[in-house]
Amino acid sequence: MTYEYLLAGLPELKAGSDAPISLEKLDELFDEQLRASDKALLDLLRAPMNEETLEQGLKAKNRFVRSWFEFNRDMNNVLVAQICRKHGFDVKQQIVGEGEVADQLRTHTTQKDFGLNEVAGDWTEMLVLAGIEDLMKREKAMDAIRFDWLQSHTEFDFFSPEMVFAYYLEAVMLHRWSLLTIEEGEKVFRELVQDMKKGVKLD
Fold first, then answer.
1. Per-block mean pLDDT, blocks of 10 residues, the chain (203 long)
2. What are phi and psi of 196, to 5 degrees?
3. CA torsion 141→181→163→1, rounded to 10°?
4. Are 81 and 105 in contact (CB under 8 A)?
C-alpha cells in the first residue's frame, strides 16, 4: 500500500526551518489513514527511546525501522564513547547493544577513531560530535545527521510507508528545536555524565 494522497497533501519539511504542520495534526492524519500494520510501526517510532523500544525496533520486520534504530544506537554509542574517554569513564560499561560499531568501540578504546575506519560507512561527522562544546549546537548537529539519514534512506521510496515514517520523524525534530531551551540541553548532559559516574548503563 502506498500513500500518494496523504503525502502529496503535506507541506515540505526543510532542515533548520520551523515545522509547517503541528504534530497533533500529523498524529490525527496518520492515525486515520495508515493501515493497521503501518500504524503499529509508527507507534513504535513515536514511543520514547529506551531499552524496551530499542529492542523492539531492532527486531522489527520492516528494514527501514530496523535500520533507524540501529543508526541511532550506533550514533549514541559513538558519542558516549567519546564522552567516556574525555571524562575518564570505562567505555566498555557504557556501550549499548551489539553489532560492528559496538564491538569496535569496546575493543579499540585506545585508537583515536575507535577503529571505526574498519566499519563500513562515514563516521567522520559522528566522531567530531563530542568536540562540540556548545550543547545546543551538538544536539542540532546530531539531528542534522539524522535528518540527512532519513532523506538518503527514503530518496527512492515514493509514497511508501517508509516516507510517512521519515516525514514524521523529521517533523518531530523540527518541533523539538522550537521547544528545547539551553537550560534543558544542559540538564540532559549533566544527567548523562552523572549516570556514567555511577556506572549506570545508558539506554
1. 89 83 93 96 94 94 96 92 86 88 90 86 83 82 91 89 96 82 58 56 43
2. -70, -35
3. 150
4. yes
Helix (H, G, I), strand (E, B) or coil at 123: coil
Q: What is the spatial distance between Cα 190 and Cα 9, in angstroms, rounded to a whole number? A: 41
Could you tell me the CA-to-CA distances from 192 to 42, 104, 142, 200, 201 in Å, in that order?
Answer: 27, 22, 16, 10, 10
Secondary structure of residue 158 in the 3-state scheme? coil
Decide: residue 191, CB within 10 A, 0-12 exposed, 13-18 middle, 19+ buried: exposed
- pLDDT, residue 196, reads 55
Q: How many CA atoms lie within 13 A of 164 on its CB side?
A: 26
113: which residues sit within 8 A by CB, 6+ positions away?
123, 127
pLDDT of residue 182: 52
What was the pLDDT predicted at 200? 44
Q: Determine the Cα–Cα distance for residues 118 and 203; give it in Å rounded to an integer.
A: 25
- For cell 510517512, the residue is 164
